Amino acid sequence: MSFASIEFILFFTVCLAVAGLLQRLGRSRARACFLLLASYFFYGYWDWRFCFLLLFVSLAAYLSALAARNKAAFLAGVTVPLAALAFFKYFNFFLDSASALLGVPLGSLRIILPVGISFYTFQALSYVIDVCRGKLEPERDFIRLALYISFFPQLVAGPIVRAVDFLPQLKEDRRITAARLKTGLQLMAFGLFKKIVLADHISVFVDDVFYAPSAYHWAILLLGVLSYSAQIYFDFSGYSDIAIGCAKCFGYDFLPNFDLPYLSQNVTVFWRRWHISLSTWLREYLYIPLGGNRRGKPRQYLNLMITMLLGGLWHGANWTFLFWGGLHGLALCLDKLRPKRENPGPAARLLGVLGTYLFVCFAWIFFRADSFGLAWQVIKGIGSFQQGIVQPFFWSFVGLAALAAASLAAVLRARKNGEETVRGFYPLVNLDRFWGLTAFFIAWGLIFGLAFTGEAPFVYFQF
Q1: With b meaning 16 or more CB within 10 Å and e meaning fewer, what string describes 410-443?
Q2: Residue 202 and residue 231 in contact, taking contact as beta carbons nearer than 8 Å
Q3: CA-CA distances (angstroms) from residue 446 to 190, 194, 275, 372, 440?
Q4: Whole-number Cα distances in Å, 233 to 60, 161, 207
Q5: 449: number of CA atoms within 13 Å, CB side?
Q6: Contact by Cβ (8 Å): 260, 272
Q7: Distance (Å, rounded) from C-alpha 41 to C-alpha 435?
Q8: 328 Cβ partners below 8 Å, 6+ apart?
């Protein structure tokens, strides 16, 4: 079930009520078992058969970590999640690529991609690796470990929660409190507003533009690209807000996953602010083990390219995702080559933010387009001042204005507080006051009033 559905609201309400009752009765073990069963029900709502895959990955991580000092056990703990991910997500991609390269039809298998497999396999991997590194003691309670991997707020599309951050919380008496509910419900409302009111409406225009880019005027194509930058941010950061808020309601804390990425002055900073849980995972478990920046500049650039190429491929079994990752890898390498200024002035900072945003938007074209042909049509259409359908879309302007307004509010808040760095923007209100409560219910009214009646899945569900 999707976060943006009546079914989830009912599911969440029942889970919160039962967990609260078990907490009041002092049944912490029963509470953990209930949350685990609820998480498997949540996952099985899409396709119950993949619950066995989730259980298998969890069991493999549990057993291999218990014997992590044994090299064979460690290899099994790493191989099982990677093999599951490779088969379900990339088997046909590699088969089709080999077929095109050899010029021989090799056929394909009818494989259904399990929802969230890219996320929970990475969590299982991080747990096994951290145990092997000695950063974490192996978890002997299988219920606790299985809950870490499958906890429903982050199961389908993250954030990718590391075991060192979440497993200790599962061992504590994390309680449902009024203060946590106030914060959690506001974050959930904020995320749903981003998704339902903004991202879903913008997606109608973006889908039309990227379906037939040759039919549109160059200015509309440009608006479509900018609109997609807003759509994917509102969609995915909205999901993360809901996940973080949902976990907060149950007493657990997830780290932020977005931090105003479009205010980044360079691509390096962008990846510290965009999908933070993924960029952190790639740095800790891929870039640093490859050697990071410890073996000279040429090796550092190679490590950056490998990391970003694999990061692009993680997003989807398509050459366009690989190319998107390569673009960001190249930009990161160029950023390392560029001489750094100690204290850039306001004009230089503004130019840095604008240049980074335009580069990110250009790269988004390959991320969103279904093929290189469609991506090239968008780029060619904008570059050649193509004539065609002129169809300004109201919600695109609303979304871009909302993005600009939130960014401006964050900048003004940073200046008011004397902060040099502009941080994330979460406008929590005081629900004990009349106007705060009024704003809260107005937001929920807009969410329900402007919701689509059809299916509008989150963008990152496909990954």
Answers
A1: beeebeeeeeeebeebeeeeebeeeeeeebbeeb
A2: yes
A3: 11, 11, 27, 38, 10
A4: 34, 20, 16
A5: 6
A6: no
A7: 38
A8: 267, 271, 308, 311, 312, 363
Residue reference for tokens 């390219």: 305
Cis peptide upstream of residue 159 (ω within 30 degrees of 0) = yes
In the block, tokens 């695109």 appear at 396
Q: Which two tokens stand for residue 322?
A: 């690989």
Amino acid sitting at position 417 = N
* Per-residue model confidence (pLDDT) at position 76: 85
**287-305 pLDDT tens trace:** 999 988 888 888 999 999 9
For the chain, give the secondary structure using H, E and C: CCCCCHHHHHHHHHHHHHHHHHHHCCCHHHHHHHHHHHHHHHHHCCCCCHHHHHHHHHHHHHHHHHCCCCHHHHHHHHHHHHHHHHHHHHHHHHHHHHHHHHCCCCCCCCCCCCCCHHHHHHHHHHHHHHHHHCCCCCCCCHHHHHHHHHCHHHHCCCCCCCHHHHHHHHHCCCCCCHHHHHHHHHHHHHHHHHHHHHHHHHHHHHHHHHHCHHHECHHHHHHHHHHHHHHHHHHHHHHHHHHHHHHHHCCCCCCCCCCCHHHCCCHHHHHHHCCHHHHHHHHHHHHHHHCCCCCCHHHHHHHHHHHHHHHHHHHCCCHHHHHHHHHHHHHHHHHHHCCCCCCCCHHHHHHHHHHHHHHHHHHHHHHHCCCHHHHHHHHHHHHCCCCCECCCCHHHHHHHHHHHHHHHHHHHHHHHCCCCCCCCCCCCCCCCCHHHHHHHHHHHHHHHHCCCCCCCCCHHHHC
Torsion region of 296: left, alpha or beta (phi above 0 gives left; psi -120 to 50 gives alpha): left
**Which burial class, exposed, middle or buried, applies to 308 when counting CB atoms under 10 A from its CB (0-12, 13-18, 19+)?**
buried
| Structure token pair of residue 92 | 């046909």
Question: Which residue is associated with the tokens 């014997």?
Answer: 67
In tens, the pLDDT along 198-233 reads 998 899 999 999 999 999 999 999 999 999 999 999
> Which of 183, 189, 136, 197 has its CA nearest to residue 163?
136
Catalytic positions: 315
Model's pTM, two decimal places? 0.91
Q: Residue 266 half-sphere exposure, CB side, CA atoms within 13 Å? A: 16
pLDDT attached to residue 372: 95
